[in-house]
Structure formats: structure tokens, C-alpha cells
Design goal:
260 residues, alpha/beta, D-Maltodextrin-Binding Protein, domain 2, 2 domains, five-stranded mixed beta sheet, 9 helices, 10 strands, elongated, metal-binding, metal ion binding, ModA/WtpA, Molybdate-binding periplasmic protein
């Protein structure tokens, strides 16, 4: 090989190695923030993930989305996470009893309301229709936040006994409730009003204003998480003006809004 050709090969190899090293450094420089969030937060938290990463180059938001009670079980067993966003207070309390939280990081950040959900073409217009014998009703289980909210609302409506008699399934998340309805395996269920935005084949029937049940979402940063500083920054983004705007765009309301 001619000296000039040999030089070109050496230079090319050196440049390639430099590029590989640079990419390796960038990969190592990537910071990850692990966020556990309730299933009902799936759409807004994917939007928050994109918005946060756009403002924080080099930060990768990793979402774990499932029923709050399932996420809490994982956290109690020691799963690594920086932020936990729960669909209710009780489930966050369960984690707080077993894991260390960053002081002052616990915040209520969103609210939601319940609706009776039925197929869009269903001949179902009144809550009293839930009493109809043979109606197939699906709820989330009593250990799931939306399942607890649903049972509290039904109790206030005097419909608990009738609905329990028609109950065909207890699901482990609100996504399971929606899936049963979309597949035609149930005639009615209770879910969050925001869920209807992602389920065009379903419609909601509002609960009367006298029903004093609203979902309250809380988040906290785990002090023993992999990157608590990043967790605090992401939590601040969610509770700040930009994060709250994203949540409103997806149908969530501020805590206390519409109450009283």
C-alpha cells in the first residue's frame, strides 16, 4: 500500500474511533429519570415526557404506566423509581410508609371526575338503568383507585347492591374496564371522564352534582431513587405552569376546581 493511501486509512480509522468515542460519551452522559404513573395518566404523561425531554437535552424520561396499586406493590418491593404519580392519596400513603420520600416533594397535581361509561350506541341513558337485571357491569377492583372511587359514588347513589349483583369483572386498572366495554364483554362500567378522550367507541353519562366523589392525583419524589435530583426537576415541571397546561389539554382539572 502506498504511503499516501496508508495515511488516509490511518486518518479514517482515527476519525471513526473518535466518532465512536464521542457517541459513547454522549450515551454515558444521558441521564434517566424513572417515573411510575397511574394508567389513567398515560396520555398526558407521554406528552409531558416529550415536552420535558425537549427542554432538557440529555435527559431520558422512562415511564412505567399501570394501575396505581400495582406500581405501589413494585415500589414497596424495592423497584427503582424517581417519581411516583398515584391516582389517589391512599396508594401514595402505602408507598410513603415503606420508602423514603424527598421532603416537601409530595404534591396534589390533578383532579378527575367519574362517569358511567357505555358503548356509544347503547340504549342506556339513565343511572337507574344500572339496576336492570342481567346488565353486565365492569368495575376496577376495590383495591384500585378508580374502583374505590366508583364504589363510593355508587354508595352515594344507592346503587351499590344492584351493581354488585350485575358485576361480571373486577379489573386491575381503568384500562381493563375500557377494554371490556370496547370488546363488548360488558354493557356498562365506571371510569374517569378523561378516559373517553381515547375511546371514541364509548360515551359517558355524568353523575349528579350531589355525588361528592372526585379523583385526586398526588405525586412524590423517592429520596432513595436512582436520580432524586432529576425526579425533583420532573415533579416541578409537572406541577408548574407548563405541566398543568398539558394536563388541562387532556381533560384533567386543578385540585379543588369545580368542587364545593
Amino acid at each position: 500500500m502506498a504511503p499516501v493511501s496508508r495515511l488516509r486509512v490511518h486518518v479514517s480509522l482515527a476519525l471513526t474511533l473518535m466518532c465512536v468515542a464521542a457517541l459513547g460519551c454522549r450515551a454515558r452522559a444521558q441521564t434517566t429519570v424513572i417515573v411510575f404513573a397511574a394508567a389513567s395518566l398515560s396520555e398526558p404523561f407521554h406528552a409531558l415526557e416529550r415536552a420535558y425531554e425537549a427542554e432538557h437535552p440529555g435527559v431520558d424520561v422512562v415511564l412505567n404506566l399501570a394501575g396505581s396499586q400495582l406500581l405501589a406493590s413494585q415500589l414497596v418491593e424495592g423497584a427503582p423509581a424517581d417519581v411516583f404519580a398515584s391516582a389517589d392519596v391512599a396508594t401514595l400513603e402505602r408507598v410513603a410508609a415503606e420508602r423514603s420520600l424527598e421532603p416537601g416533594s409530595r404534591r396534589a397535581f390533578a383532579a378527575n371526575r367519574l362517569v358511567v361509561v357505555v358503548p356509544a350506541d347503547a340504549d342506556f341513558d339513565e343511572l337507574e338503568d344500572l339496576r336492570e337485571p342481567g346488565l353486565k357491569v365492569v368495575l376496577a377492583g376495590p383495591e384500585v383507585p378508580v374502583g374505590r372511587y366508583a364504589r363510593a359514588a355508587l354508595d352515594q347513589l344507592g346503587l351499590s347492591e344492584a351493581v354488585e349483583a350485575n358485576l361480571v369483572s373486577n379489573e386491575d386498572s381503568v384500562n381493563g374496564v375500557l377494554a371490556k366495554l370496547e370488546l363488548g364483554e360488558a354493557d356498562a362500567g365506571l371510569a374517569y371522564a378523561t378516559d373517553l378522550r381515547r375511546s371514541p367507541s364509548l360515551r359517558g353519562i355524568e353523575l349528579p352534582a350531589s355525588v361528592d366523589v372526585r379523583a385526586r392525583y398526588e405525586l412524590a419524589v423517592l429520596a432513595d431513587g436512582p436520580t432524586p435530583a432529576q425526579g425533583l426537576a420532573f415533579a416541578a415541571f409537572v406541577t408548574g405552569a407548563k405541566g398543568q397546561a398539558v394536563l388541562r389539554e387532556h381533560g384533567f382539572t386543578a385540585v379543588g376546581e369545580g368542587e364545593g
